[in-house]
Specification:
Elements (H helix, E strand, L loop, with lengths): L14 H12 L5 H8 L3 H13 L19 E8 L6 H9 L3 E6 L6 E7 L2 H11 L4 E6 L14
Pfam family, one: HTH_AsnC-type
Keywords: DNA-binding, Transcription, Transcription regulation
InterPro entries: ArsR-like_HTH, AsnC-type_HTH_dom, Dimeric_a/b-barrel, Tscrpt_reg_AsnC-like, Tscrpt_reg_AsnC/Lrp_C, WH-like_DNA-bd_sf, WH_DNA-bd_sf
Length: 156
């Protein structure tokens, strides 16, 4: 389910917190013992830091990164949707029913949503965009390549 942006109180992060965040972004499977060795702290103090970062909403989860093509998704596209109403429930319901929709962002400007879609083929992309077009006008951009596919986030 999509939720509106909410302001949370920020944790005060120090260089040790930054190091933990960087290490976990490089290897989310790193054990507490490995993290502790890398930052020169005890495992219990490191576990406390990770717990504080998680409880404070800085670390929001752990995941594995996969190659979409290895799973049969050969086409990546961004679909801009000009949604004509303020009732977003139909959009949320449709996005939830399409596993090929891997990101959706409510944005400013002429379009209401920018949606990242993975498809098995151009025909599959046509099926997906046809479903999205039932909600409003769409513009589709197919990705040729991604020179910067994803970056780790550094503290602001």
């Amino acid at each position: 389910m999509f939720s509106p942006v909410q302001s949370k109180p920020r944790l005060d992060l120090d260089s040790t917190d930054h190091a933990i965040i960087e290490l976990l972004q490089q290897d989310g499977r790193a054990s507490v013992a490995q993290l502790a060795r890398a930052i020169s702290m005890s495992p219990s103090a490191t576990a406390d830091r990770v717990r504080r970062l998680t409880d404070g909403g800085v670390i929001t989860g752990y995941s594995v990164t996969v190659d979409p093509e290895a799973l049969g998704y050969t086409v990546t596209a961004f679909v801009r949707l000009a949604y004509p109403t303020g009732n977003y429930k139909p959009f949320h319901d449709l996005a939830d029913s399409l596993p090929e929709v891997i990101e959706a962002h409510h944005v400013t400007g002429a379009d209401c949503f920018i949606i990242k879609v993975l498809a098995r083929s151009m025909r599959d992309l046509e099926r997906i965009t046809g479903r999205l077009a039932t909600l409003g006008g769409i513009t589709t951009n197919v990705v040729y390549s991604s020179p910067v596919p994803s970056r780790h986030i550094t503290p602001a």
